[in-house]
């Protein structure tokens, strides 16, 4: 029993034609090792520099505990000054993470330090891209992005272990209904196949992302990330050309999310227990049928 994890393709550089034909159109992940070599951020974005720039901002912190069924999916566990958090993750292991925080919005001069990969594709969305920070050992639980954008995820000041799965495996990954994350009761690094048999035989990809390297994650890809060092990343998001995917994104962000929040608020644990049972039922059914 095992997961089948193959290495994500890598290239130092790639032409627009090769990227579109071999990765964007077939929706295949890729690590571009030197995409950031002209970015001022590659040398400039140290922990000390970011502390000087946005250190006084209060930021929400997230840990690895299972989500509270009565709260929205992005409810934080604590708050802290950004500068104090940077000190914390440099001292040693911690499971506290920052995500959905936008230092660039608070310090627009950071906009000058990176480049959207418009040489590869168009449709980039964010004027102020989000940044993500984690202490050594902290984990981003298995999920896919609710807006279904393509992601160019660049890492700084350390290493990050990343595991990806095509969206076709959603049911076998125990996808929670009316959400874009998986059942939180298993460890994708070391799954218990007896307890979660639908995971056996799933095909995925993995890599270690190093300082300055950029991972292209196509729309809908499931991703799990573990910070091997206290470090941080920036994600640049771009629309897929498909109007069907744009429509699904709009549905996810409005109807599905609103419905899920209302149900969690009103039915709390009972609703979450029902969703988890349904996730298991669907995974077992997909396994029995021999399908992703």
From TrEMBL:
It comes from the Bacteria. Residues 105-255 form the JmjC domain. SMART domains: JmjC. It holds the Pfam family Cupin_8. InterPro entries: Cupin_8, JmjC_dom. PROSITE patterns: JMJC (PS51184). This is Cupin-like domain-containing protein. It comes from Mucilaginibacter glaciei.
């Amino acid at each position: 029993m095992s997961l089948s994890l193959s290495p994500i393709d890598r290239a130092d550089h790639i032409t627009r034609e090769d990227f579109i034909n071999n990765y964007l159109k077939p929706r295949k992940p890729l690590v571009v090792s030197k995409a950031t070599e002209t970015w001022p951020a590659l040398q400039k974005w140290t922990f000390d520099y970011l502390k000087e720039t946005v250190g006084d901002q209060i930021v929400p912190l997230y840990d690895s505990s299972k989500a509270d069924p009565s709260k929205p999916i992005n409810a934080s566990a604590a708050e802290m000054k950004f500068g104090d958090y940077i000190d914390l993750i440099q001292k040693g292991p911690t499971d506290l993470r920052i995500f959905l925080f936008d230092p660039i919005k608070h310090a627009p001069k950071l906009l000058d330090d990176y480049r959207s990969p418009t040489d590869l594709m168009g449709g980039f969305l964010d004027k102020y891209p989000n940044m993500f920070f984690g202490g050594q050992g902290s984990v981003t639980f298995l999920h896919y992005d609710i807006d279904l954008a393509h992601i160019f995820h660049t890492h700084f000041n350390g290493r990050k272990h990343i595991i990806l799965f095509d969206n076709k495996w959603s049911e076998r990954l125990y996808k929670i209904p009316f959400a874009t994350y998986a059942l939180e009761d298993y460890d994708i690094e070391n799954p218990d196949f007896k307890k979660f048999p639908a995971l056996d035989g799933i095909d995925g990809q993995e890599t270690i992302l190093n300082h300055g390297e950029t991972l292209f994650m196509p729309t809908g890809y499931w991703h799990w990330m573990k910070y091997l060092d206290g470090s941080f990343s920036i994600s640049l998001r771009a629309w897929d050309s498909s109007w069907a995917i744009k429509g699904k994104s709009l549905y996810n962000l409005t109807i599905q999310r609103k419905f899920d929040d209302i149900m969690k608020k009103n039915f709390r644990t009972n609703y979450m227990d029902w969703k988890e049972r349904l996730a298991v039922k669907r995974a077992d059914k997909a396994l029995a049928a021999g399908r992703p």
